Structures are given as structure tokens and as C-alpha cells.
Amino acid sequence: MSERAVYASRRVLSDAPFLAAAQGRTPRRRPVWFMRQAGRSLPEYREIRAGIGMLESCFDPALVCEITMQPVRRHGVDAAILFSDIVVPLKAAGIDLDIVAGTGPVIAKPVRSAADVTALPRLVPEEVGAVEQAVQLLTAELGSTPLIGFAGAPFTLASYLVEGGPSRNHERTKALMHSDPKTWHALLGSLADTTITFLQTQLRAGVDAVQLFDSWAGALSLADYRDFVLPHSERVFAELESAKVPRIHFGVGTGELLGVMGEAGADVVGVDWRIPLDVAARRVGPGKALQGNLDPAVLFAGPSAVEKQVRRIAREADAAIAAGAAGHIFNLGHGVLPDTDPGVLTEVVELVHSL
Fold it and tell me: For residue 251, which of 48, 134, 165, 214 is within the disulfide window of CB 3.0 to 4.6 Å?
């Protein structure tokens, strides 16, 4: 069976507000979901994850299904996002890494040379069979709610591999990029292959949209992004085009990169909280939907402040659509913070749906 035929067997969710907004149609209500909506802000998540490591959780299909469903049940969001982590495909391929509490992904042997890049293992779909099974469980349980699959973008994965873990300045990453462009592009080419394989596996299993997280792209200048990152993100999006599902591109601190990120091939561009959506629409250019962009910290400010900011973002989103954006999906400008009151998230969903 061809890849296109496999993709064609996906659920038909023509009335889903999230998909309508992402595809430039008029949704029956303003759609909303939250990055990191499944996770530490939910007591039911903390209970079910007790004593189970993060990576172990990501390879347990039943657990992934339950965790992914939790915010859908609690908040009534318009999309679920697969519970996983951007380093899951690296771990599955055989790279020695762990997610350390309070730190993040830590790489046992950082990638610093051409030989290191050559030695990187390649992901094969069977190695993420547990993720495929989780998607199949979810599509059977979600009913009319779309499921978003995701992966880390090549640059962000590279930054973890080169630095050995999270980095404030990305000095080793930028040094490799500029001192040895050949090795750099070989590294990102390898990681693009891994990202494509991981997302295609999710698409074959039935996800209804995909999001590419380039979490650290905001550390780059416009010139560096265009020269060293854009070609690889473009290839990822191009390889997913035949699935005919919305493709979302998101990064943090990327206000100055929104135009070029819009060129990479996504249908929806995520916007963090630093610039208004109508300004983002002009930077991205017409024909793309936008996603965002409430500051996650505002959720701690009390009901009146939260309502004021939600309404402001809705107005800016309407202005963005008037300026040529194809649609708007309400979200945060980054992920839900761990100490967020889940009741506030539910109230935001109800408010967004009323606007």
C-alpha cells in the first residue's frame, strides 16, 4: 500500500474547529488547546506518573493514551497533543541519553565532530512502534477531537546533541555551525531524516496534524537561521506534504524569525507572547494560520487579568485574520507551567469558546 493510501485512511473530522482554523476555513467556534496541556499541572498526571520515568512513560502505549486524554476530559480543549518528548526518536534510535528531572535531556556522548555525526544511528519505524500503538489507541478513544503529533526540529535536536544538554548560550552549537559547516549540515541532514521518520510513523498511525518544535531557534540570528537551519526544516515539511494534514511550526523567542519560519512550508505558524498576533501576521505574510499567544505566566495573575489578556489576544487574532492570516488557533505562547492551576486553564477554554 502506498504512503498516500495509508494516510488517506485517517479519521474524517470536517467539523473540528481546530482543523477548520488550521486549514483556512471558518470554524464553528474559536479553537483552543495548550502546549504542555498534559503534564505536571494536572494532579491526575502526577498520580499516574508516580515512580515512572519520563522516557519509560513515553514508550508505554496505554500510559501515553491516558496522559494524552487527561486534559481533553478535564478542559474540553479542541485538540489533543500526543504525550511524548522531542528526544524520544533519538532514544529509540539508540542514542545514549536520559531526561534528568530539573535539567532536561542529557546526552552521554555529545556530538562534536564529523566522526560523531557519521556514527549517529538512524531511526527505523519499528523502533517507535510503541508510539504508533499509542496513536492508534488515541484515535479510537478521542471521538471527534483531533490528535496532534509532534517532533523536535533538526536544529533543536542538534543543540541538545552538541551541547550535551540544555544550554543558555548554545556556544558549542554555534561554534560547530560556523567553524565546520559541512559537518553541521551533515548533522542536521541526519536529524531531519530522524524527524521525518518519526512524524511519518505518527501520520501512518492516524494523527490529524503535526507540530514541529524548534524550541531553541530564537537563539539564532536571521542570517544564521536562513543559512544553517531553514533548508532542513523545509525538507521536513516537504516530506510531510502528501499526508494533507495541517503542519505547525513553533519556536520560542522567534519574533524576528517569523517571516523566514513561514517560508519553511508549514500551514500554521506558532507565535510566542512577545509580539501581537496582528504584527506576527504581517511578518509571516498572508495565507498562513497563526497559533498563540497568551503568556503562560499570566495564568497566575488572577481571573480579571487573565480575562483581559485573553480578550486582547482574541482581538489581535481577528485583526491578524483581517490582515491576511488564514485563521487563528488560541494557545499559549509556550507550554503550561508546572504550577499552573488547572482550573484556570478550564476557565480560559470556556472564555475562548464564548468569544
Answer: 214
Is 85 labeled as catalytic in the residue annotation? yes
Q: Rounded CA gap, 60 and 64, in Å?
A: 6
Peptide bond into 169 cis (omega under 30): no
CB 156 within 8 A of CB 216: yes
Catalytic residue among 30, 36, 74, 247: 36
148: helix, strand or coil: strand
Residue of 318, 325, 314, 308 lying closest to 355 (CA atoms): 314
Q: In whole angstroms, give the CA distance from residue 269 to residue 249.
A: 5
pLDDT tens digits along 163-219: 998 888 999 999 999 999 999 999 999 999 999 999 999 999 999 999 999 999 999
Q: CA-to-CA distance for 29 and 11, rounded, in angstroms?
A: 20
Report the C-alpha gap between 289 and 211 in whole angstroms. 13
β-pair partners for 147: 80
Residues 219, 170: contact at Cβ < 8 Å? yes
Does residue 160 have an active-site annotation?
A: yes
Of the candidates 177, 244, 186, the one whose C-alpha atom is nearest the C-alpha of residue 216 is 177
Which of 30, 45, 160, 204 does the annotation list as catalytic? 160
Catalytic residue among 85, 116, 180, 227: 85
What's the CA gap between 306 and 37, in Å, rounded? 17
Could you say which of 10, 30, 49, 74 is catalytic? 49
pLDDT per residue as tens digits for the range 330-339: 999 999 999 9
The x, y and z cell numbers of residue 177, run together, are 555551525
49 is catalytic: yes
Rounded CA-CA distance 250/220 in Å is 14
Bin 34: left if φ > 0, else alpha if -120 < ψ < 50, else beta. beta
